[in-house]
Fold each of these.
Amino acid sequence: MRKPIILMAALAGTVLVAGLAAALAFTRGQYRGLPLDGPPIALVGARIYDPAGDSLIEGATVIVQGREIVAVDVSVTVPDGARVLNLTGLTLLPGFIDSHVHLSGIRARASDGSRELGWLGYFWKFARKFPDRRRALIENGVTTVKSLGDPYPWITSFAEKIERHQLAGPRVFAAGPMFTAPGGHPVAQLRAAGQGDTSFIAQVTRQIVGPAEARTAVNRISRHVDYISAVLENRGFADLPVLAPAALHAITTTAHGHDLRVLAHVNSGAELAIALAAGVDGIEHVPFDAPLDSAALDALSARRVFVDPTLQAIEGYLEEVLGDTAAARMARANTRTLYQAGVPLLVGSDAPGPATGFGTTVHEELRNLVELGLTPGAAIAAATYRAAECLGLADRLGSVEPGKWADLVAVEGDPLVDITATSAIYLVIADGQLLLDRLARFKRPGSVTVQSGPQRPEPPERPGRPGLLARARPEPAP
């Protein structure tokens, strides 16, 4: 009798120890957010670039109080008790905005053809909310991301945890599921990646048959998402189903009725024409099948439809998956044409697709845009102020000004001369949280004298969900 009791006790002890070990491993390195109940932060001596006005301020001081920038000037009085950080010799920029990510995404296959991440490993990362991805984005100066397709409602809960600073990471604006045709992209890719159970696909996509189903699907999620992500692209496979024009039109008109923008994924000129006819507000990717025609260029420019080329992702996909280098060159040529036609461009990584990485691809995409003819200032604007305009939040994001959310990145060198300087990052503040400080590694030329004065009051808290964009919209007039 005693032996079974001893065995059961040993088993219970083993289970308890294993559970404690799993709990410890789960919580370690989870990348927690920081409270904002400390003193204000004073960033002194920086060279500040404002992409909104394409202007520079030398030797300025920026005061961050709570979640907001409260002062920017060369003669700012630093509040008593402020934490003073010397940025002499560094260039201060707005935090970068990655306009196209899939935070829960997984590549279909590794380079050797095997599945890149098994379900057990994926579930572990999913449950812990991908701390490695959040940290990588912050370490590369990305303080805001647009999720263009992640499990819903998981992604809105994830965004809220970052908004409340329970987790550290970039602010998340979320589309929720991707609206697509039955069996269309990304359903086939998810199945190939091993994410083929029906519940996961049902969370990541809405497979739309016709207009009535489209209206119902948009209405059901409209209060909780920030915009709608609609898929027309066939990924270069002619037999892959795509959304019908009537369904896309119903998605767009219904979304606009809820004050939601619609972003359409395309990869051909014909798909672009359908998207524009449906009245979408933004284009994800750039057609790579043929040169863009003048009608599309005129419509994009006249309506100021933002285009997020995701060149690095397109080239990686075309070369790694389709082996089509000619199409990759066409994508670059069309992006140059868009810029020359005055179409506003954005910076999006489409991570974690082929040849992309969280955070790092933003800097690769900046270099791509400069190679195609954009000035470094225009490329930086595409990753900051223009992206904020696309979100309808140019009054809160995308530049270094009083009243803006405190998203700031300090880099070494002059990114207006050499765009690669954007990746030499020494400081990152995201939503008022000092999440990266490498200033001790930087050799500063000279010193900065600051003057103390009375501390400024902390600005009021911002409300949270539903919908970060809904939160940021001004109250209607009485």
Amino acid sequence: IQDVLNDAGYATTMVTDNTWLLKPSWKRFRDSFGEWRGIEGQEHQRLRGGAKTKRIELADYITRELRRSDEKRVRAHLKVVETYLRNA
């Protein structure tokens, strides 16, 4: 669709936090947009130094079903959620 819009004179921009779309193998796709912006925030991306977060109750991000799960799984989930929230 971006090709159709570009050809019609519209400005197109891709904005994504999907790290797969930021890889070199996706360059051709990214370049089909007039411009693109990568937004950091995925849970597995490293947090840049100096970032600060407000106090967040991580338990709010656990479903009832997950709360009944084993403690190791809950801790792993909370680590992913915390990293995502710090990045976002």
Amino acid sequence: MQKVIGVECWADYYFFGRLLNDSKIIRKEKNKNEVLKSITERAKGSFSVGVVDHDKKELTVYLKETEIEGMVTIGEYIHVSKFAGSIQFVIELKPVEFEIWINEFLKTEGKSVADFGYESLKEFIEESKSIYEVLLSKPRFIKLMDFIFEHYKNSDNHIRKIKLILEYLLKNRYQADINELINV
């Protein structure tokens, strides 16, 4: 299968590959701008999804300069935009970045990054920016991810929602209706 989902960092690559049980469809880009370019420029005429942090002004500027056909916000943690006349979508993780997005899930489970051996959220953020091989060699990162994948299915939360959103987009690709995402 084609690499149709672009992400910003190796932690995202690992997470979304595992969430969807298929890392072959995930494409790790250099940064947010490259994710956005891969959606709008390199994927012309093809289905593509970018998953990015909602943490920099450039995303807002980029989206304002691009014609958007539809936008939906699902809860307080997920915002999806569809580019006009295309089958390209960008999913923004809110409130700020992937690691904080993950931490918000941990809070719903009565946990924090400290429960997995991190001294602080800052330390978790720094470690998650490691290259892939280093990241996978970190037992506390893997333990934290294992916890997420063992527990996200148990309640209505943003991780479960994003899985359903991505599965809907992957299944419906060219017929995907952004307004249907609210109902997934």
